[in-house]
């Protein structure tokens, strides 16, 4: 999958996160922790987007690694919201599936980028 597709998936996910958070606010759920999900879920795409303008291969890898960490944090918050019944099984399943897809693509991209960087440094 190309970086542009990863950017598009992460943007779609960010919009989904924003909509989910807005729905939870309308349900009068705990807004302090909703903000945690909002920050981590939208940060994924921001870091992926920023990686496209990295100053070096190391900077590119670093931005993707930050996006990956944000994916893991987002997974955590989604699970907390699901376990506390703040979101439905369907909402959780949909969001977790999207986040997992992005996470897997990030892992593959980081692995490839590291392999390519290592090959470039070999004589």
Strand content range: under 5%
What value does the average pLDDT take?
Answer: 93
Following the backbone from N to C, one meets helices and strands in this order, namely HHHH
Structural class: mainly alpha
Which stretches of 5+ consecutive residues score pLDDT under 50?
none
Number of strands: 0
Radius of gyration: 16 Å
CATH A-level architecture: Up-down Bundle
Main sheet record: none
Anisotropy-based shape: elongated
Structural key phrases:
mainly alpha; 85% helix; 0% strand
Description:
By secondary structure, this protein is mainly α. The chain has a single domain, classed as 23S rRNA-intervening sequence (de novo design (two linked rop proteins), Up-down Bundle). 85% of the residues lie in helices and 0% in strands. The chain contains 4 helices and no strands. Helix 1 runs antiparallel to helix 2, helix 1 runs antiparallel to helix 4 and helix 2 runs antiparallel to helix 3. The longest helix has 33 residues. The radius of gyration is 16 Å and the shape is elongated. The mean pLDDT is 93.
